[in-house]
Structure formats: C-alpha cells, structure tokens
C-alpha cells in the first residue's frame, strides 16, 4: 500500500512535519512503513533541456554530439540515446547531479571525455532519474531511449531551463506501507483511513470538511434489470447510470497522485474509480451501457467457463466464482477485473457506475483458483465494510460531476442491502488497566476510544459500552480488541517495561530415574520412548478389562483409545519392528507412566529377546534376572526372587517370578520377571524366547537402601570346582545354594553355570551344574585343602538333596 503525503494533506493539517518522523509514528502505532520515498530525489541539479543540434560522434557509430539549451546556457554532451532528435525536450542533468547509471549504480556526474570528446552533463533515460512511473517507453524509442518530456504532457507548457522536479510536479513524499501489517484492517487500504489514524495518534488534526452534498437522482430505472442470484455473496450494492457528451483528459493533480501510489492514467472515468478506491478504500467499476446486451445477472460461474480480462489474459473459471453476465456471456469477474467488451472507453457516452461489497472468502477462492490478483481483489479479500459501498459511489459521482461538466445522472440509485451497524461491546476500565499494566483515568479511556470514532457510554462505575464506527466493523468485536486499540493509541513506547516477578527454583528431580537409565544403558539396553496409547486389542493381550483402563475422551483413533496400563505393549511393538536387525539379542527398556482407572505410577519396563534357540548361556529369562540383580545392587538393594502366585496372561506359566528388593531392614515387592508367552510372541512375530521385567519404580525408590560395604581385593588366587547334580523342578534351588555357601569356611561363592534336561531323564527332572569357588584371605590354598573342602561341600549338597 502506497500513501501520498500530498493526498493525506488534503484531509489533515500536520502537527508533525518531518516525513521520517511521521513514518516512525505510523510504524509504532498503526502499521509498518517499509520505506519513505521522496519523489524526485534524483532530480536535484536537473532541468528541462532543449536539443539544439545532433551530430555524429567522430569516434563512435552509436554516439552523438548533442547541443542542449539549459538553465546554465548551452551545453555540449555525448549521448547514446536512440530517440534523440533536434528540438526535443529532454531531462538534462548538470555536472554534480546524482543519477543511477543505466538504472543501477548511483554515481555523481563529472566533466569527462567520452571517446576523446568532452561531455558536460548528461541527457537521461527514465530509469536513471527514477521516472519509470512517469514516462512509458514505446517500441519506436529504440533500445536506449531517453526521456521525451513532451510526451508527459503537463498542464502547462514546459519552460526550457525550468527545474525538472518542479516542472514534473514530483514534490510528493510516498510512504510504502507493508500490506501484511494491515490484513485485518480493510479501512487502512485508503488515504482517508490513514488520515483517521494520523489524527488518532496525535500527529495531525482534521481540516474543516465541506458539507457532503448528495447528487439528485432522477426516477428513471436502469436501462436493464440486474438479477442477483447470490445475495449472501453480494450483501450491499449501489449503482446508477450517467450520460457524458465528451470525456476530458485526467487533470494533472489526479495523475500525479495516482502515479505516486502506483497507478497509470487510463482515461478519466477509469482514473476516477481508481482514485476513489485509493481515497476511500472502496473498489468501483464503470461500464459502457451500450455494450451490455439484455439484462444482467450476478451469479456463480459454471466450471470451466472462460473470461478474457482487461489485461488480455484468458482465465478458466472454477465452479463458484462471482461473475456478471448478460445475453452475450460473462463480461466481469466480480471483485477482480472486468472485460474489454464492457469497460468504458474514450467514445463512451452512457456510463453504468457500480459499487459492490462482496464476500471476502468467495473473492479469495477465485484468486487462488485463477491465479489472478489485482489491487481491487487485494482489498476485497480483506472484507470491505458494508458502509463503504454508498460512500465510494457518492464520492465518484462528486468527482465525475466536478471534472466532466457534461455528465448527467440518468437513473435512480439502484441498491440493495443496508449499511452496517456495529454491536456494542462492554469494556471494563479495570481490566484495561490490569492488562496494560498502567493506570489510565476514565477520561483518557473515553478520549482514546473516541479518537478512532467509537461511541462510548458509561455503564456503571467501571464499565463502558463501546460501539465501534461502521468502518471498523470487520476488526472490532471483543473487549480484547478495544484494549489493543487503547494500547496502540496510548503508545506502546509509553507503557513502562516491567519484567514478571516469580520465584525461580530448581524443579525437584528424582535423580535415581536418570541413574536407572544410565545403568541399563551401561548393561547394553537401548532406551525407547513409544506412544502411551493402546487399543482395546492390546488390553486383551495384557489381561486388562476396558473398565479397568483409562479411556481417552477424544482419541486420535480406536487404535489409540486407551492410556497404556503397562509398558510391555510398547516394548513388544518395538521388538516386532527391530528384533531381526539386532545383533546377539534385542535389549530395550522404557521408563514411562502407566495408568489404570484408579491410579497411575511410573514403571520401568525391560525386554530381552533371543535371536536363536537358547541354552543356559543366553537364556533371556536368566540373563534378565542377572541384569536386574546388578541394577538393584547399584542402588544398594539385594534382589530376592519368589514364585509368583499371580500369573499374567502375557506370561509363560512356568517362568514367572515375583521380585523383591531387600534394603535396610526391609523388603519391598517391586514387580515381576517373566518369560513372554509363546502366543503373545507369535502375535508380534518374535520367533524365539523373550523375557520381560516390569518394576514399580515408586515402590523401589521408597525403600531405604543398604549402605555399601567395600571389601579388600583378594590377594591370593582361588580354586574352582564344578558340581553337577540332579534336581526336581518342584524344589526351589535358591535356598539350597544359600545353605551350601554357608557349609564351609573356605567357600567364597556358589553359582549356577549350566542346566540340562532330556527325554531320558525322569519327568520334571534336570541336571544343574554349580561352580564352587574356594579361597583363603591369608594364604594360597593347596590342592589338598581345596579338594577336601569341595568333598565336604559335595556331601553337604548331596545331603540337602536327599
């Protein structure tokens, strides 16, 4: 969005004079001003020159000697302009002027020699002086054209030697406002809108406005009927027809303002509609009545209908674009661009002028579908206020009657819909002060909101009823919107900075959770973090009834309808995807919260899967028991194992152990160790044996650990003997091992190293191999001593077995 300072000055008297300061205030309180363009900044030391003679350069085929009459007398320059000719009015830059060489590098002119010939100054092209928006290059100008000032056609003949900036009227300042900063404010796509803001933030005051004079409309109907099949998409519409005998050229003041804001003059009627859009924010369109064939319909396009717009581009329309059509077909893509067939021309005598408020979403969909964006469409997609329709039409009629003396309104005002009425908003003055963090008197609040056109009524001691103005109907709806208005008008820079005050404490952390992870990682287990959601099928596998699980109110899908009652489900899913790629054995753990209908707690889940048929050396159940023992010993606990009376449905009935941690004078049930049932393994595609460990973490860490006792490293070697004996699966081996270890003073350790069973043995029988370690703290045992001790231990073990 481009704003002309000269145009704004038509509505306001400036308190702040400096354009840079105006831009800074607008940026702070209204919208970001990206650039401040001073028109004619490159025109200092430039004048209107008259070409007296043109002669060929003796040392170059494409250069000329040109004598130019300037304000400093006759100057000779070397010029390469392909359209230079005698008696031509040119843009002449004196030595010392700043130009953009070929539109790129900025340089200061000096007296130079070009191909051996002196040149005093420069005859400039449009891009070298920033005149691209003023001077349009034609094909006949050649490859290197210079500015032909006679084509710009100012209101008064150009005087040779006159200041070029003054002669072209390029004395405006243009503010480039970021469109992204005003997407919620359609009223700011206009000069009147920004004039309101300049007054509201205190950098300008309103000039005295002339009384609004509405034109008189005859009683004649439009020469054609307008049928609206989309009233919800065109909620407000105003139109009338006019007769013009002759259309004069666009006056220079209007051309300059349009050029400053990025428009080129295209004839007075079209210029007036563009001018009104830039002034009031209401896009308008004028049609030639003689080109309308039959009655007019406002409707939605059919899929793959086509229209050729004013830019001579053909567009294939979607099934829901807003269009206007007559008996000859579509002639206007509403809100975006019309067609040449129906637009006003120099020969137009009967004008149909209309102003329509359109549904923003419909216009936006059409922009996306066609890829065609125009200035009007950019405004329409922001939701033009309903009240803008009549304001825009009346302003256009005022300008037409002022600038085209022969213009006469020939129809009544054809319209439907009503101007908007905004819903009052209740605003608490106490909440305003609380949110902004500053104390504001009620008088300040009333004045601040009144500056933006709100009507404020007191409602009790601390409440106000605020009615937004019609032009703010699209963005002022809530109390928070009004608080934001107060903040920006008071000035964000005037609200003192205050850091929030809150106690900063290190959050309590249970370091043993991290230690659990560290120990397991050291033992070769990988941590996984699966989702905490499971399906009803998983609940069945875990032996949990749905009423005992915790169901989500808004699950992602039925596969994630419940919170996990056990970490085992996530570990099995991980094993299903990764066990074939593991080396040696798959080892994984997770530390996560598990849930039931009654409570929730942190659970450590560990899984170990064998990748082949297993013996004692790699039995996942026994190896996981060993790792659990090492894990607990790290925290000062001793592992105790007992036969589990409660066998989960996911566990192998013959290999389920209840785990206990023994601490300082206490014993705590901490969970289960089991082999995964073959049926469950098959469900997850795990071919070989797998074991799982489930530990109730709060129960574990609530137990006081035993102080670690360090013993001296043995200085003397030990002697080991293996003992293989038969056992029954009905007799627990643990108590026997404890008794054997206490049976002789020289025995230091008894460990199971292997077990074996076969069909030749009795039912429920197996052979177990024990490794007994013997040693003395003060000497090296002789073979006879060790052998004697082992014989005693063997007899003791045999006795215990009998």
Attribute tags:
21 helices; seven-stranded mixed β-sheet; OB fold (Dihydrolipoamide Acetyltransferase, E2P); five-stranded antiparallel β-sheet; Phenylalanyl-tRNA Synthetase, Chain B, domain 3; 25% helix; alpha+beta
Characterise the protein shown here.
The chain is α+β, with helices and mostly antiparallel strands and 802 residues long. It has 6 domains: 2-29 and 176-206, no CATH class; 46-167, OB fold (Dihydrolipoamide Acetyltransferase, E2P), CATH 2.40.50; 226-416, Phenylalanyl-trna Synthetase, Chain B, domain 3 (Phenylalanyl-tRNA Synthetase, Chain B, domain 3), CATH 3.50.40.10; 427-463 and 477-493; 511-701, BirA Bifunctional Protein, domain 2 (2-Layer Sandwich), CATH 3.30.930.10; 719-801, Ferrodoxin-fold anticodon-binding domain (Alpha-Beta Plaits), CATH 3.30.70.380. Helices cover 25% and strands 28% of the residues. The protein has 21 helices and 41 strands. The strands form 12 sheets. It has a 7-stranded mixed β-sheet, sandwiched between helices. Helix 6 (252-260) packs across helix 7 (268-280) and helix 7 packs across helix 10. The termini are far apart.
| Corresponding CATH architecture of the largest domain | 3-Layer(bba) Sandwich
CATH-wise, what's the superfamily of the largest domain? Phenylalanyl-trna Synthetase, Chain B, domain 3
- How much of the sequence is in beta strands? 25-35%
Number of domains: 6
Mind sketching the topology for me?
Elements: E1 2-4, H1 5-8, E2 12-14, H2 19-29, E3 33-38, E4 46-56, E5 64-70, E6 73-79, E7 89-93, E8 98-101, E9 105-108, E10 112-114, E11 117-119, E12 122-123, H3 126-129, H4 164-167, E13 173-177, H5 191-200, E14 204-206, E15 226-228, E16 236-243, H6 252-260, H7 268-280, E17 285-288, E18 296-300, E19 306-308, E20 314-316, E21 322-326, E22 329-333, E23 337-338, E24 350-357, H8 360-370, H9 375-380, H10 388-403, E25 408-409, E26 414-416, E27 425-428, H11 429-436, H12 442-451, E28 455-458, E29 463-467, H13 479-490, H14 511-522, E30 526-527, E31 533-534, H15 536-542, E32 562-563, H16 568-578, E33 585-595, E34 600-610, H17 620-634, E35 638-643, E36 651-662, E37 667-676, H18 678-683, E38 690-696, H19 697-701, E39 719-728, H20 734-741, E40 747-756, E41 765-774, H21 783-801
Parallel strand pairs: 15-18, 30-33
Antiparallel strand pairs: 1-13, 2-14, 3-13, 4-5, 4-7, 5-6, 7-12, 8-9, 10-11, 16-24, 16-25, 16-26, 17-24, 18-21, 19-20, 21-22, 22-23, 27-29, 28-29, 31-32, 33-34, 34-38, 35-36, 36-37, 37-38, 39-41, 40-41
Helix pairs in contact: 6-7, 7-10
